[in-house]
Structure formats: C-alpha cells, structure tokens
Amino acid sequence: MLAILYDRIRPDERMLFERAEALGIPFKKVYVPALRMVLGERPKELEGVTVALERCVSQTRGLAVARYLTALGIPVVNRPEVMETCGDKWATSAALERHGLPQPRTALLTDAEEALKLMEEWGYPVVLKPVIGSWGRLLAKITDREAAEAILEHKEVLGGFQHQLLYLQEYVRKPGRDIR
C-alpha cells in the first residue's frame, strides 16, 4: 500500500489523492506532524505501507520522515540522499557539474572580501542566495559594489553558519518568463 506523506494539503496533494483513487491504487494519507517517529517501531498509520511518497512542504520535516521510513525498511520517493542533495543549492550545483549539465556560473565563498573580488571579476549583476532555502527567500540580485557591501554586511551581522556561506551565481537575463 502507498502512503502519501504530507504536512499541508495543497492542490497538488488533492490531485494525487484523486488520481490514486481513480486508478484504484490503495493508499493512505499520512499527516506527518501527528506521526510519532519512534525508531524500531512502526506506528499504526504505517501498517500495511510498502512504499511512501513524501510531499511535505517543510524540507526539514520531509527529510526527517523519509529517514525514519527508510530506517523501517519502507522505500520513499524521493530517497533521503536525493532530498539532501536537492535541499542544498551547493550540493545540487556540484551534482549538476559532475554530470555535465549546464547551469549559471556558480561559486561558494566563505569570506566577504573574496566574494566582493569575485563579483567584481564577474561583473554585475550577480545573484547571492542562501545555500538552504526555496521560493526565492533571502535571494539578492546585486547590481553594484555598494549593494554588495551592504548585503554582505547584513549577512555578517545576522550571524549563523548559513549566512557565512556565500553562494553566488551569475545573473541570467530572463526571456520574459521565470527560468528554474
């Protein structure tokens, strides 16, 4: 039986539920925030489950439940290792590079002065992104050195190890639509 793991029902999850029903695929809806993940124990919500589809909005929650089900021997789409790669922009960029797939010029720096030097070498605009995150949160299109200095200073003041990782990409001019 298929388990569809979720933390919020969005239109995509509704479509998955409807399609599984229409195709006669036996499935359970498993609300992850209510799931007690005790290692070595299979909760009643997972009785009869032979495979799971992870659909949590929260990357942290989704990865945790995927690891738990994997420990129980239940295959999960996507595997935790895939989720870890996709949840980290630097790991994703490295995987794309390893497989020869095109992407914007990308760099990771840990020093603001080195980041400024690289931005000057590449030319403006450049894009500074958090290594972890989605939906364009905390992304900055940097158009000149003054903006770069201000943004890098803000990141330094914010503290935390994630703000010390400076993930830079060349700016790609869009042909009137979003490119992801």
Q: How are the strands ordered across the major sheet? A: 2-1-3-4
CATH class of the largest domain: Alpha Beta
Second-tier CATH architecture of the largest domain: 3-Layer(aba) Sandwich
Approximately what portion of the residues adopt beta-strand conformation? 15-25%
Main β-sheet: number of strands, strand sense, barrel status?
4 strands, parallel
The outline comes out as elongated
Describe this entry's structure for a reader:
This protein has 180 residues and is an alpha/beta fold. The protein folds into 2 domains: 2-86, Rossmann fold, CATH 3.40.50; 103-170, Dna Ligase, domain 1 (2-Layer Sandwich). The protein is built from 7 helices and 8 strands. The chain has helices spanning 11-23, 59-71, 80-86, 89-98, 112-122, 145-158, 161-164; strands spanning 2-6, 27-31, 51-54, 76-77, 106-109, 126-129, 140-142, 166-170. The strands form 2 sheets. The chain has a 4-stranded parallel sheet with strand order 2-1-3-4, sandwiched between helices. Strands 5-8-6-7 form a 4-stranded antiparallel sheet, with helices on both faces. Helix 5 packs antiparallel against helix 6. The two termini are 33 Å apart. The model has no long low-confidence stretch (mean pLDDT 94).
